[in-house]
Specification:
Helix content: over 70%
Structural class: mainly alpha
Number of strands: 2
Largest sheet: 2 strands, antiparallel
Order of helices and strands: EEHHHHHHHHHHHHH
Distance between the termini: 43 Å
Shape: elongated
Number of helices: 13
Length: 273
């Protein structure tokens, strides 16, 4: 389902609030299979849980501000509460823009995602996740330097953001700065020892440096953590092929292909000729 918010208003009425939202919803059954695949991705589920948690936190704070507004004893106190409500409204709008950006990202609408995250950042300049996700959008457009700038900002705002370190590692890897990439993957893994994508990314960086055995170790770890990570099977297959172990490469390409990873299918056909 594609949902477009046509209008949204929130007004103070007496000691309470009125909310008005007008939406347009469109269901496209052709997209169901693709969306099912996305929902099965644990990272997508976790991200949406965080978005929902942010919404819920905002609503709780609004409820508290409603109580404070009702208890305000004079005009000065009332204006202070109303100022807090204005700030909270900006944060609420920032969450809304963040969710729009996230949906655009899932749909590979990178320019629209960048615009949405930029709006979120304008409303909430301390939103590390918005910088991280905008960095991903720039990365997907091949604008690695701009992506790294955003990942840097996300890390400054949240030094424990394993996602930002991993994503910056991806950008450095694509810029062929493999040692810097490995350094970032190491940091991501230190923050989250079960971070599958960081092991997979570090494996690619080791492979690019010609350290094939270390690459295989990382792909093995990624697969152990997530046996359904088709890309890790494919990447390990590429390394086995580089080492001349064609039987192992075929086995990994077959697994990747069975999981719907197109490049695995292509390599499998080449090796089986």
């Amino acid at each position: 389902m594609e949902v477009t918010i046509l209008d949204k208003k929130r007004t103070i009425v007496g000691d309470g609030f009125n909310f008005y939202v007008k939406i347009k919803a469109k269901v496209n059954p052709d997209n169901l299979e693709e969306m099912v695949k996305k929902v099965k991705d644990k990272s997508v589920v976790d991200d949406y849980k965080k978005i929902q948690a942010d919404y819920d936190k905002s609503q709780r704070e609004i409820e508290e501000l409603k109580k404070q507004l009702a208890q305000a004893k004079n005009e000065g106190q009332k204006k202070q509460v109303e100022a807090k409500i204005t700030n909270e409204d900006k944060r609420f709008q920032a969450i809304d823009w963040f969710e729009k950006g996230y949906q655009h990202g899932l749909n590979k609408e990178h320019d629209s995602a960048i615009e949405a995250y930029t709006n979120a950042i304008a409303l909430d300049p301390n939103n590390a996740a918005a910088y991280n996700n905008r960095g991903n959008a720039y990365y997907n457009k091949g604008q690695y330097d701009r992506a790294i700038e955003d990942f840097n900002k996300a890390i400054v705002l949240d030094p424990n953001n394993a996602f930002a370190y991993n994503n910056r590692g991806n950008a450095y890897d694509d810029k062929k700065q493999y040692d810097r990439a490995i350094e970032d993957y190491n940091k991501a893994i230190a923050l989250d020892p079960n971070y599958t994508n960081a092991y997979n990314g570090r494996g690619n960086a080791y492979d690019n440096k010609g350290q094939h055995d270390r690459a295989i170790e990382d792909f093995n770890k990624a697969i152990a953590l997530n046996p359904n990570l088709a890309q890790a099977y494919y990447n390990r297959g590429v390394v086995y092929y580089s080492k001349g172990q064609n039987d192992r490469a075929i086995s990994d390409f077959q697994k990747a292909c069975d999981m719907g990873y197109e490049n695995g299918c292509k390599n499998l056909k080449i090796l089986k000729k």
